[in-house]
Design brief:
Length: about 230
Amino acid sequence: MDGQLFKVAFQKFGAGFWKIPNSRMVLVSLGLLNAVLFIIAVVLGVMCSRVREDSSMKDSHSAAMKLIDELTDLRSNHSDLIEAEEEAKRVLQMKIQDHVKLKEQIQQLTALNIDNQRRFESLKTEKETLQANITALGETCGRCPPSWIHLNSSCYFFSYTESSSIKKRWHSSRMDCTRREADLIMIDSPEEQKFVSNTIHSIAQDNGFWIGLTDKATEGTWVWINNVQEVEPR
């Protein structure tokens, strides 16, 4: 029936067409065509797969290169961080050393300040004492105790005015002077020599007075109580 249909159809449209083959030949041709199409499809699939693999490999290679670049950057950053850490450690060590030195300087300055404070207090006390002495000297300046005679910047006491009957030896006389916060006279100027001579002559013509001159160390060698040797006894 298929052959008849083909025959009728071709006859209907004209006699210029070739003769239609039978159905077996058609099936064989279709099978071959399908086989060719399948092979072409397989080849195209393989080619597409290879293209995809090449693209995937390129993408993988690109991703790998990107990862390598990132890893390189990370290594570089890690090295920079290590160097920064080492530098920070060095700076910290220097700061610690500076802190220790500063602490030692503070301790030294504190000790020096305490010492200066003590000296200041001592000087302050000394100043107050000197001021008190200056005040006392100002009040008694130019004056002598009762029964004492003033000459220039010195005061003289002649014990005869206190008691004319008590006689003392040189050593006892000097001790008496020491108790009065004084000492036996040391004549060191003609003016003082004249003053002493005139005063003795006026108050006790026939009595002698001890002065700060002695030869107790070596008889005949007269020495003043300030260890100055007298060339000629006065």
